[in-house]
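Long-time lurker, first post. I've been practising inverse folding by hand and with some scripts of my own, and I keep getting stuck on stretches where the structure tokens seem ambiguous. Below is the full token string for one chain I'm working on. Before anyone asks, I'm not after the true native sequence, just a reasonable design that respects the backbone. If someone could post their per-position residues I'd love to compare against what I wrote down in my notebook.
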């Protein structure tokens, strides 16, 4: 009877051991920590930014002022032109003085560095608009032009032949304002306008002390 009881207890004991082993396996095994930080991959160094603003060698800057391609020198101004107008003033009226003549007088520096004596030329008579134009002559190749002035010289109208010093028509209007005419190779100066009037309207001008 005792051995029969032992035999009955044996299966029960085995079952208990199996249950305990299963509980041991599933109940007490530590769970993985899914929140644990994973090791960071080693950061690679960033590539160096190319230094675009410092090229290895800079191109040489061309000297546009001192170097000219072949043939360009021929385009530089080689002629000095002078233009202006001559008008007649009678009372409150003004009109173009056709046939009036102006005088251009200049001084230069010669090849030895000395100032030359003044040399002059006359313009042709003004057109119907009182306009005159002249190109400078008398300047030698070895001279360097220093200064020029324009003066009134002649009026063809008997009733309007008294010169006045408006715009330095008597004392001499210094050539200073110019523009370049590339198509004509000309440096064009502008003077005046100059005026003549009648004797009854003339007044002391005080303009004879301008030189030249």
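-- Answer (accepted) --
I ran through it position by position. Result:
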């Amino acid at each position: 009877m005792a051995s029969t009881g032992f035999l009955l207890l044996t299966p029960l004991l085995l079952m208990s051991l199996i249950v305990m082993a299963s509980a041991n396996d599933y109940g007490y095994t530590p769970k993985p920590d899914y929140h644990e930080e994973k090791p960071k991959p080693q950061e690679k160094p960033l590539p160096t930014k190319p230094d675009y603003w410092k090229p290895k060698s800079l191109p040489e800057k061309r000297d546009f002022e001192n170097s000219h391609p072949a043939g360009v020198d021929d385009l530089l101004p080689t002629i000095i032109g002078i233009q202006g107008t001559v008008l007649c003033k009678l009372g409150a009226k003004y009109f173009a003085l056709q046939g009036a003549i102006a005088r251009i007088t200049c001084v230069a520096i010669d090849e030895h560095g000395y100032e030359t004596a003044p040399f002059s030329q006359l313009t042709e008579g003004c057109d119907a608009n009182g306009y005159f134009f002249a190109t400078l002559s008398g300047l030698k190749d070895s001279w360097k032009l220093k200064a020029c002035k324009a003066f009134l010289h002649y009026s063809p109208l008997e009733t309007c032949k008294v010169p006045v010093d408006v715009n330095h028509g008597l004392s001499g209007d210094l050539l200073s304002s110019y523009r370049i005419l590339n198509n004509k190779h000309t440096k064009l100066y502008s003077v005046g306008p100059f005026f003549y009037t009648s004797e009854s309207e003339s007044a002391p001008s005080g303009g004879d002390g301008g030189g030249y």
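A couple of notes from the structure itself: Confidence is low (pLDDT under 50) at residues 46-75. The chain is about 10% helix and 30% strand. Happy to go over any region you disagree with.
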